[in-house]
Amino acid sequence: MKAHDGMYIDGAWRPAVGTETIEVVNPVDEQVAARVPAGTAEDVDRAVRAARAAFPAWAATPPAERAARLAALRDVLAARKDEIAETVTTELGAPLKFSQSVHAAVPVAVAGSYAELAATYPFEEKAGNSTVHLEPVGVVGAITPWNYPLHQIVAKVAPALAAGCTVVLKPAEDTPLVAQLFAEAVHEAGVPAGVFNLVTGLGPVAGQALAGHPEVDLVSFTGSTAVGRKIGATAGAAIKRVALELGGKSANVILPSADLAKAVNVGVANVMSNSGQTCSAWTRMLVHRDQYDEAVELAATAAAKYGERIGPVVNAAQRARVRGYIEKGVAEGARLVAGGPESPRERGYFVSPTVFADVTPGMTIAQEEIFGPVLSILAYEDEEDALRIANGTVYGLAGAVWAGDEAEAVAFARRMQTGQVDINGGRFNPLAPFGGYKQSGVGRELGTHGLSEYLQTKSLQF
Ligand code: NAP
Ligand code: MG
Questions:
Q1: 229 & 268 share domain
Q2: Of 200, 215, 214, 115, whose CA–CA distance to 451 is shortest?
Q3: pLDDT surpassing 90 at residue 242
Q4: For ligand 1, is residue 436 a contact (CB within 6 Å)?
Q5: Which of 371, 135, 164, 159 has the alpha carbon at shortest distance from 248?
Q6: Can 215 be counted among the known catalytic residues?
Q7: Is 0.85 topped by the overall pTM?
C-alpha cells in the first residue's frame, strides 16, 4: 500500500525532521503493509506554526466560502470511497463490506452535514442590547484513535474548518494511512495551505507535543480515558479548551414488554460490529430475570453466526487485552455461552465473538471497557434494579432501551446517565450530538453542538 514519507504541512508534503518510522501492520495477516514517518516535537511545532499563520485569513473567510470547501471535501471523499475502504481494511482489518458501508460512507455524510451547517449556521446573535459574534477558537490540536479512523478525523476537522479554525491532526499510529489519504482529499478540495496539517507519529511523542504546544488553543481528543485524563490535565494547566471523547460501557436495556428476539439480535450485532471496537457499543445487555434464559440462548445463537464474519482486532496488544478480559470473566464466575479466550485462527489478531451469561454488576467485565467482541448479559429484578445497573459504571456514553411502547422506553431513557440512547433500535443520526456523561468525556461532537465546541463568543453592547 502506498504511503507518504513526509508530513502534510502548509499545503505540501514535507520531509519529516527525524528518520524514525512506524510500521503499519495488516491485522488480518500480520504483514507490514506500509511505513509512515514517526513525527517528533519539531514536526509538530512546524505544523502548529503553519496552522497559526493560516488562522487569521481562514477565520476571516466568509462562511459560504468555508462551506464550499467542505462541500468539495465531501465530494472528494465520496469520489475516493473505494480507496478509503481498501485503506481502512488494510490497516484496521475491517471486512471490506463494513469498510465501504461504514468507514468510508459515514465521513461523507458528516463532511456534508458541516458543509451545510457552515452555510446556514447563525454566526451572529442578538441578546438585548448586544450583538454576540461566534468566532473561531483558533488553532486546534486533534488527536484521534484507530477504531473509526476516518470518521473520528472528519468529526473533528469538518466542524473545526466550518467554524474558521485551523487544525493539526495526529492520527493513531495503527491507522495513519487513511489520515494521509484524508490530507490528500483536503488538498484536492482546495482548502488553503496551513488550514489543515498532518503529523503522523506516536502518542507519547507527537501526541503529547501537540497537546502541550502553547500555540494550540483547543485540544480535541478521542481515545482511552487514561490518556484523556492526561490531556485534560495538560490543557487545564494551560487554561486551554479541551474536548474529550472517551470510553464507554453502555447498557442495552430490554424491558419486559419488548420484542425480545429483535432486541437481543440487534444488541448482539451492535457489540460484534467493528470487532467490538466501538466506544458506544452496548456491551452490557440487561434482561428481566423471567426472560433471562431465553435471551441468553438467543444471544449465544446470534453470536455463533458472527464467528466467520467479524474481522480481527487492531493489533496484538489489543488482542491480548481482550483475551485477558475474557479470562478474567471466567475467573470471576461468569458463564461462557459463546466464544472464549482461544484464538479462532492461527494468523491475524482474531478474537471469537464471545458472550457471557451470569454476569453480575460488580464483575470486571461489567465495569471496564473491553474493546473487543465481548457481550455480558445481566439479569435485573425490576425497572429500578435495571436503572441502577445501567447507571452503575463510571461511564455514560450511549445506550439502548427496548419496550413494547415507545413512551415507556423514552421514560426509562430519560433516567439514564448517558449522552445518547437508541429507542427500539433507532438509527444513527449524523446530526445528533455525540458525547459522554460522567467519565465518558467532556464536550460533544457532530451537528450544531459539535460545531459550537470550536466557537467562542464575543459580545458587543450598543
Ligand atoms: P489511546 O492510547 O488513548 O489512543 C488515542 C490517541 O491518543 C492515539 O492517537 C494515540 O497515539 C494518542 N496518544 C496516546 N498517548 C498519548 C499521550 N500521552 N499524549 C497525547 N496523545 C496520546 O488509545 P489506544 O491505546 O489506541 O487504545 C486503548 C484503549 O482505549 C482501548 O482498548 C479502548 O478501551 C480505548 N479506546 C477508546 C476509543 C473511543 O472511541 N472512545 C477509541 C480507541 C480506544 P498512538 O496511536 O500512538 O497510541
Ligand atoms: Mg496507544
A1: no
A2: 115
A3: yes
A4: no
A5: 371
A6: no
A7: yes
Residue whose CA is at the smallest distance from ligand 1 atom 9? 172
Return the DSSP state at 22: E
- pLDDT per position as a tens digit, 185-216: 999 999 999 999 999 999 999 999 999 999 99
Q: How many domains does the chain have?
A: 2
User: Is residue 435 domain-resident?
Assistant: no
Considering 165, 279, 408, 453, which one is annotated as catalytic? 279
End-to-end CA distance of the chain: 59
66 plus 104 within the same structural domain: yes
CATH code, domain with 268: 3.40.309.10
Taking residue 239's Cβ as centre, other Cβ atoms within 10 Å add up to 6
CB of 173 shorter than 6 A to ligand 1: yes
**173 and 227 part of one domain:** yes
Cα(259)–Cα(280) distance, integer angstroms: 22
CATH of the domain at 211: 3.40.605.10
Q: Whose CA is nearest to atom 7 of ligand 1?
A: 203
Mean pLDDT of 81-109: 98
Task: Identify whether residues 332 and 235 lie together within a single domain.
Answer: no
Candidates 439, 460, 443, 433; CA nearest to 218 is 443
Question: What mean pLDDT comes out for the span 435-448?
Answer: 97
pLDDT band at 394 (very low <50, low <70, confident <90, very high): very high
Our measurement of the distance from residue 187's CA atom to the centroid of its chain's CA atoms, rounded to an integer in Å, reads 24
Residues 362 and 237 in one domain: no
Please indicate, yes or no, whether residues 195 and 214 belong to a single structural domain of this protein: yes
CA–centroid distance, residue 183 to ligand 2 (Å): 22
317 CA → ligand 2 middle, Å: 10
Q: Is the dihedral of CA 109, 112, 118, 120 positive or negative?
A: negative
**Which pLDDT belongs to residue 306?**
85
Does one domain contain both 278 and 202? no
- Three-class SS of 418-434: CCCCEECCCCCCCCCCE
Rounded CA separation 77/89 (Å): 16
- Based on the fold, state whether residues 448 and 386 are members of the same structural domain: no
Give catalytic status of residue 408 as yes or no: no
Q: Give the full edge-to-edge strand order of the sheet including 124-127.
A: 124-127, 130-136, 455-461
CA of 145 to the centre of ligand 1 (A): 5
Domain extent for 159: 6-246+440-461
Pairing label, strands 218-222, 139-143: parallel
pLDDT of 309 higher than 90: no
Alpha-carbon span 431 to 211, nearest angstrom? 27
